[in-house]
Design goal:
Blueprint: E1 2-7, H1 11-25, E2 29-33, H2 39-52, E3 56-60, E4 68-72, E5 77-81, E6 96-101, E7 104-110, H3 120-137, E8 143-148, H4 172-182, E9 186-188, H5 189-193, E10 219-224, H6 225-228, E11 231-237, E12 252-256, E13 267-268
Parallel strand pairs: 1-2, 7-8, 11-13
Antiparallel strand pairs: 1-12, 2-4, 3-4, 5-6, 6-7, 8-10, 9-10, 11-12
Amino acid sequence: MRVATWNVNSVKQREPRLLPWLDQRAPDVVCLQETKLTDEAFTDLLGAKLADRGYEVALSGEGRWNGVAILSKVGLDDVSVGLANAPGFPHQEARAVAATCGGVRVHSLYVPNGRVPGSDHYEYKLEWLAALRAVVVAGPPEVIVCGDMNIAPTDADVFDPAAYVGQTHVTAPERAALAELRALGLSDVVRDRWPTETVFTYWDYRAGMFHQNLGMRIDLVLAGAPVASRVEAAWVDRHARKGTGPSDHAPVIVDLDEAPDGDIGPVVPPPSAGRPRRSVRLPQAR
């Protein structure tokens, strides 16, 4: 079973890339984030095209912002929208959907950004992650928790730790919340498979950051032990970030039981540039 997660940053804008990518990579389960469409609009746009490709669809969407989805060729049972007892900002947002696919409980997540450490939105992020942990702990061990987590687990998951000082995604409370989630028995399957490699999943659109490989690894696939033991390949499809009209995120792909493309990775194709000098500054810092 091939499982993928991808923050598409507007499924309407990414339709010309998403459908060919589905045909090329042939994932059995796809978790999407930042769909930015209501459920009705998503269905009108892609429902028939996805059905023609054999996908059932579970949605939690809203117009303009947020939105998550699960596409599955291997069953879509016990669909759950949102998180029990999750906070809102001020109302609950379309950031979580879960379903059982091929015997695995799959969560597609778009974790709040946090904006500025110490802000109301930052506290909302931490409370939301606590609600997520409560949902996962009550569920089965055959689980995949994936999506845009908006947290780089360690300094090795950003191109330059000094560039992120004082910003979200790398603060100790965020990383602690992620560690508490992983402490439920979840493996970070990409990092576990590639412990010393440079792997990014997100590159800012500005300042040529993608071409210089100035990125972050914030799109994660966390798997319970019964699922992690089945992993045969885990990789970032960097090719999907290239070309015209890409998302600023690349898909993460995990193969269970068999790997149709072999044990490739960690990034396919390889980055065009190595780690930069520490003097590089983030565009938002300028």
